[in-house]
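Table S2 (continued). Query chain:
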Amino acid sequence: MLYLLGFDPGRGMALLLGGGLTDPDYLLSRATFIMMTGLAFSIPLLAGLFNIGGEGQMYLGGLVSLLTAIYTGNLLLALLAGGIAGFALGLLIASLRVYRGVNEVITAIMLNWTLYYITIYLITNTFYDPLAPHESIKVPPQARFGIMMLGGFKLHVIFPIALILIGLSYYILYHTRLGFEIRASGLSPKAAKYAGLNPKKAMLYSMGLGGFFAGLGGAFNVLGFTYYIDTLLTTMFGMGFDGIGVALMGRNHPIGIVFSSIFFSMLILGGQSMQMELNAPKEVADALSGIIIIALALPQAYRMVISYIRTKRLIR
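Corresponding output:
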């Protein structure tokens, strides 16, 4: 593709794959947010739900954490408020699916855009910074995550905290009864029910947990990186959908999501480097990144489809 468009393919691919490594802190910070939305998609998927609402859950978590930080100045409270807001939204989506039969994809897509415009409205009309009208009021200094020095370069604290949360999610999914219920219900709800498990509970908690992590992703963005929300949600827009690709590349496993989120961020930042160095159109960088991501995610997506078909046949 690069050759046909008149660019040096070797130089282009080197920039795409290595350009993001020039700023490790920014790379890992961006990976942190996608890591959380990757969990937001992965956990409900294990229970048989398709959580495409990580985007809206992230917006809500970021907004609630910002407002909590502004009014209380308490970092821990603001972080938990963002996570709980995401949990509540995920639980709402799952409740409509479990008790009313409303498809979670439809509900999530509608809520994504609803929360997108609500957040923009509040930032633009109520919580804007008079000195910078395109930004919200800043997070108070005492309610911010700091920056640490590691091996001579800086690192935002939110990344190691995200790794701890990855470990927590792994423990919940693979070393607790709830995690077993989530995974068993996703493989076969009827078989899980006959075994004495509760598939409805698994669906509710899985989507709630997914929303919780997405909400934390929004909180990390606001409390630990930008310290404000801009009027176009630039630093959060699209990351909920990025989490889907990250989860599939990571084989729907928390540890895999860590590496896939870093690789995904590396491609995004490498694409930006390719645009600046080669003056290549943004669409070319996006297309090349997309081809690589699809190639890596396709095997897991194929296994998901085959597993779903086999499960349906067994139920019949």
